[in-house]
Design a protein that fits this description.
This protein has 149 residues and is α+β, with helices and mostly antiparallel strands. 34% of the residues lie in helices and 30% in strands. The strands form three sheets. It has a four-stranded mixed beta sheet. A three-stranded antiparallel beta sheet has the order 2-1-3, covered by helices on one side. A two-stranded antiparallel sheet has the order 5-7.
Length: 149
């Protein structure tokens, strides 16, 4: 099946690329999620427009990502208060959505929870942890998250 990607797909290609994939992968994964459209003559003409808009957005995103990085790393303290047991263990764990909310509460920018990377995938105890936020493939912001009881 010949498809045109409308978004970047890992291990397949970037937006605007014309790719040949198996029928099931295209029909059951790429097309329903809006990651690709069927390659026709009219759609192939749209590829150039997709590429132009992607290039314009990429340059703007890199500058914007650097601005977000400076504002994230400039935050004084990112604190998150959670319920804990007497021994200091958390009831549950701290998720990436909790961290994104804590950034917003600390006066930082709105960050997508999928771009937040926690040490060991989750936090289950009180303390200070290094957190990485991937804002762009070339830009990462690092800060310390303080989890308090």
């Amino acid at each position: 099946m010949k498809l045109i990607l409308t978004a970047s797909v890992e291990n397949l290609g970037e937006a605007g690329d014309i790719v040949e994939v198996r029928d099931g992968y295209g029909r059951n994964f790429l097309l329903p999620r809006g990651l690709a459209i069927v390659a026709t003559r009219g759609a192939e003409k749209q590829v150039e427009g997709i590429r132009r808009s992607q290039e314009a957005r990429a340059v703007r995103d890199l500058d914007h990502a650097n601005e977000l990085k400076q504002s994230l790393e400039g935050l004084e303290a990112v604190n998150l208060t959670v319920k804990t047991h007497d021994s200091g263990k958390l009831f549950g764990s701290v998720s990436t959505a909790d961290v994104a909310g804590a950034i917003r509460n600390a006066g930082g920018p709105a960050v997508d929870k999928r771009s937040v990377e926690l040490p060991n995938g989750h936090i289950k105890a009180v303390g200070s942890y290094p957190v990485v936020v991937k804002l762009h493939p070339k830009v990462e912001a690092k800060f310390n998250l303080s989890v308090n009881a």
